[in-house]
Batch of 2 targets.
Target 1
Amino acid sequence: MDNIENEWLTVADVCASLDIPAETVRRYIRNHSIHLKAKKSHKKYLIHHDSLEVLRQIRELYAAGKSVDEIKDILTQKGVPATFTVETTNENDERVTVSVTDELQAIKTELEEQKRFNQLLLEQLHRQQKYIEQEMKRIDERLEERDRRLMESIRTLQKQKRERIEEAKKEENVKKRRGIFRFLFRG
């Protein structure tokens, strides 16, 4: 099995492994490609090693006298995954066969990674929000303390101002009294 390192087998490899004639394997691929991981590379088919068991089941179902449609239904009912292969071109305008199932699996993997990333991001945002709330609380406390001190200073200044005004009034009264006494005793 010369293609095993890539997990893809040639028709000859499958024939040797399952003891099925090459034309039969090709017919199975044409008739049941939806349930097989198979792709065409140039003029030959490559079959993923995961599809060997499905090919074995297809062989047994034909031996039991089942038709193509019955086999498709049976494989679907057994939960054999459907595989879709699409030919497209890459950036070099070369024709490339893409397995939709593989692509969906890759998308699913990337989606799971994105979910993990989003979860980490949310956790970080929550930590930042908590930090911001704590800092805002500290700032509020500092502002309240500053306001308290400021009000204390204002009250102290107002008290000192009242005291000075009272002293000034007393001095003025004293001066007025002295002035009256001077006026009275002068003459």
Target 2
Amino acid sequence: MRKIFLLPAFIYILIISQNLFAQSPEGKVWGFGIMIGDPVGFTVKYWTNTENAYVFDIGSSYFGSPRFDADYLWHFDAFHSSITKLYAGPGVALGFGNGHSFYYNDSGTLVGQSNSTGLGVRGVFGLNVIPINTPLEVFFEVGLLVGLSPNFGSSADASLGLRFYP
């Protein structure tokens, strides 16, 4: 009788432990990859648990080149799938070098200005696909970037990328 109870309990624990790490590829916490769009460059993702992660990007953007991003993401199961998830979260962006900003002056004229350093906050919304039994993550994200310095302004970001989890 005891062996009959242990087998279902073992199977249940095995299934639960697989679901705990179902979000990150093969239960790994660090992923490295590339992205194209705005920004275009390299990306690193660190999973803190099955629903939350930090993402760090470095690349080139209209906001500045090089551009550094740091985001905190919440993943949620909108599709009731272990493969496809939606995510959203806040972040910051720091652009150096040749960035461009546009603003309206007092007379209502649109003025363009080049700047050497830009600081902004972002809101990110995306979709990630993690195929079963692969160390890969494919993602598409869009976001709103609000520039705080040197001028106040906004722009939209969109990137498509691939991360590998060694």
